[in-house]
């Protein structure tokens, strides 16, 4: 499954472990992944955890999707940090599963890696009947117009965002 995951591979993720119910995925935080505070954007950390979750719950021969997930951020990641998301199956009943994912950063000053985030994913394995009734993702995509294609057909006004800090208002306009 990971080989076909273009989104995860585009941000430089590597699958380092995958077995039934467990997976580990790594990613290095790049400069284009930080937010205005200079720390890794939470969406990238979530993407890393979600990718490990997907790799752990998609065993050979099954198609399993997320039905929900949440994340708790405990510490920030910064440019150059090598993050590892390790996903483990907690419980499975029928076609439903619960997986926990821990996102860590190797820290030379700490013996164990530092925990940055905890993620819990809830999965559902699709039945053979529901898979047969659906079209393939490629067929579905070719038949639809994406929001980006719709926008590209329109003429949108250009906007310029000034570089650097925002201007400071005159002191008589500052509430205080």
Topology overview:
Blueprint lengths: L5 H5 L3 E6 L2 E7 L13 H16 L6 E10 L8 E12 L2 E10 L8 E12 L2 H6 L3 H7 L3 H6 L24
**Structure summary, number of beta strands:** 6
Q: Determine the number of helices (DSSP H or I, runs of at least 4 residues).
A: 5
Query: Could you tell me the strand content as a percent range?
Result: 25-35%
Question: CATH topology, what is it called?
Answer: Thiol Ester Dehydrase, Chain A
* Proportion of helical residues: 10-25%
Shape field:
globular
CATH homology superfamily name: Hotdog Thioesterase
**Unreliable sequence segments:** 139-162
The total domain count is 1
String of helices and strands: HEEHEEEEHHH
What is the topology, as strand order, of the major beta sheet?
Answer: 1-2-4-5-6-3
For the biggest sheet, the summary is: 6 strands, antiparallel
Could you say which structural class the secondary elements and strand pairing correspond to? alpha+beta
CATH architecture: Roll
Overall average pLDDT:
81
Distance between the termini: 56 Å
| Rg, Cα atoms, Å | 21 Å
CATH class: Alpha Beta
């Amino acid at each position: 499954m990971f080989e076909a995951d273009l989104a995860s591979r585009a941000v430089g993720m590597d699958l380092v472990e995958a077995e039934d119910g467990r997976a580990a995925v790594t990613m290095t935080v790049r400069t284009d992944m930080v937010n205005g505070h200079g720390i890794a954007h939470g969406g990238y950390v979530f993407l890393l955890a979600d990718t490990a979750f997907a790799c752990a719950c998609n065993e050979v021969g099954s198609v399993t999707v997320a039905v929900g997930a949440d994340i708790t951020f405990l510490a920030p990641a910064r440019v150059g940090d090598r993050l590892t998301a390790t996903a483990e199956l907690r419980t499975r009943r029928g076609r439903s599963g619960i997986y926990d994912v821990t996102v860590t950063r190797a820290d030379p000053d700490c013996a164990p890696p530092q925990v940055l985030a905890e993620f819990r994913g809830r999965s559902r394995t699709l039945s053979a009947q529901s898979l047969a009734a659906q079209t393939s993702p490629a067929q579905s995509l070719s038949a639809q117009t994406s929001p980006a294609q719709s926008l590209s057909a329109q003429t949108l006004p250009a906007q310029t965002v000034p570089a650097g800090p925002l201007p400071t208002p005159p002191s008589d306009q500052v509430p205080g």
